Automatic annotation (TrEMBL):
Residues 9-173 form the Alcohol dehydrogenase iron-type/glycerol dehydrogenase GldA domain. This is Iron-containing alcohol dehydrogenase. Residues 185-355 form the Fe-containing alcohol dehydrogenase-like C-terminal domain. PANTHER family: ALCOHOL DEHYDROGENASE YQHD. The lineage of its organism: Bacteria, Pseudomonadati, Pseudomonadota, Gammaproteobacteria, Vibrionales.
């Protein structure tokens, strides 16, 4: 196991009707800005629950944070914070609203020249407006981690800072009932791939992390098809929601090598072609498993045996079956698994590789050996 420091300070309120808990968590004298997206929270009653919990607080709102939140939109909220003297941010929505609010929190207190430098130049974030969230879409893990992914035009970049980790997160599985089937499936696959990016590298004998990861993968494989077949089952919803949080709250990634190449290549697919985040991952991950087979051999065999119970055959046969099972699971969840499933052909590969180069994504993977040539091979394997 590698050395690590693990600290996750986000307080979680999990379960039905927990939105009321925000009343006591936000300081009484705070000037709160509630941020949200395109209005789903007005249709499903979440906005009303938040309003009623904040009845004794002074608060205003900022709406219109879009999926794959755009820098220009977020900078409007930064202006509002400065104008109104906002001291606390409450994000109410999915990963995009939470990520967008993290950026707003950091940009409002940024002392450098251009807040975009936080993403493009890795400018250090030294302060941020305190923030918390009410999560409405289980997927990204953003509700209890330090990361955010922000888009400007076709460029999609990430930053991380402990200053933007939510102080608390409300996870009420009931509010996920209004999600479309597509968003529910996206969430399951995003959480699955987060787990894989921290698990499918090379063995370092980190038994706790490995067994936790395998548990999360098994849960998602089990509960994913169930949530599509019986969407009103609250127990299934609860297990998916908690799996997604645990998949990217720092726990399973502590003390192990991490990959993230699937995400970085996936971000280019979203930036260029607007494909949903999770759907890009379903296209890229199987191809990474094929192209990086030798680097990942030990963990691929472990994954095959422990997650899919595949024991018969040579090592290569076992790995082939595990990749096929992964693809079948993605397909059963309604995902595209090839570029062609998303109506893209070989012509897209040059574009995507050029974007990877422009964004400095030239040494991806757990060994840093995924050069642009290797990423090209991955995209070719995904055709
Ligand atoms: O805008 P509204 O009206 O809220 O509608 C949203 C949006 O259209 C809707 N939605 C959310 N909750 C709902 C709901 N509709 C009905 N009922 C509800 N309860 O769902 C749509 C998609 O929402 P979005 O927030 O974009 O989805 P998701 O949570 O999958 O977030 C994706 C974003 O997170 C980033 C992705 O890159 C992408 O930008 N990620 C962030 C990570 C992190 N911070 O750690 C890690 C991830 O890998 C990911 O990259
Ligand atoms: Zn993701």
């Amino acid at each position: 196991m590698l050395n690590f420091t693990f600290h996750n300070p986000t307080k979680i309120f999990f379960g039905e009707n927990q939105i009321a808990a925000i009343a006591k968590q936000i300081p009484a004298d705070a000037k709160v800005l509630v941020t949200y997206g395109g209005g789903s929270i007005k249709a499903n009653g979440v906005y009303d629950q938040v309003s009623s919990a904040l009845k004794d607080h002074q608060w205003s709102e900022f709406s219109g944070i879009e999926p794959n939140p755009q820098f220009d939109t977020l900078m409007k909220a930064v202006a509002q914070i400065k104008e109104q003297g906002i001291t606390y941010l409450l994000a109410v929505g999915g990963g995009s609203v939470v990520d967008g609010t993290k950026f707003i929190a950091a940009a409002a207190r940024f002392e450098g020249e251009q807040p975009w430098d936080i993403l493009a130049q890795h400018a250090k974030v030294t302060d941020a407006v305190p923030m918390a969230c009410v999560l409405t879409l289980p997927a990204t893990g953003s509700e209890s981690n330090t990361g955010a992914v922000i888009t400007r035009g076709t460029t999609k970049l990430a930053f991380m800072s402990p200053h933007v980790q939510p102080l608390f997160a409300v996870l009420d599985p009931k509010v996920t009932l209004s999600l479309s089937e597509r968003q529910v499936a996206n969430g399951v696959i995003d959480a699955f791939v987060h787990t894989m990016e921290q698990y499918l590298t090379f063995p370092v004998n980190a038994k706790v992390q490995d067994r936790f990861s395998e548990g999360l993968l098994l849960n998602l494989i089990e509960e994913g098809p169930k949530v599509l077949a019986t969407p009103d089952d609250m127990e299934v919803r609860s297990n998916i929601m908690w799996s997604a949080t645990m998949a990217l709250n720092g726990l399973i990634g502590s003390g192990v090598p991490q990959d993230w190449s699937t995400h970085m290549i996936g971000h280019e697919l979203t930036g260029q072609y607007g494909i949903d985040h999770a759907r890009t991952l379903a296209i890229v991950l199987p191809a990474v498993m094929k192209v990086q087979r030798e680097q990942k051999r030990g963990k691929l065999v472990q994954y095959a045996q422990r997650v899919w119970n595949i024991v018969d055959g040579t090592e290569d046969e076992i790995i082939d079956q595990a990749i096929a099972k992964t693809e079948a699971f993605f397909k059963a969840m309604g995902m595209p698994i090839r570029l062609s499933d998303a109506d893209l052909d070989a012509a897209s590969i040059d574009v995507l590789v050029a974007q990877l180069e422009e964004h400095g994504m030239t040494t991806l993977g757990e060994h840093g050996d995924m050069t642009l040539d290797v990423s090209r091979k991955v995209l070719e394997a995904a055709l």
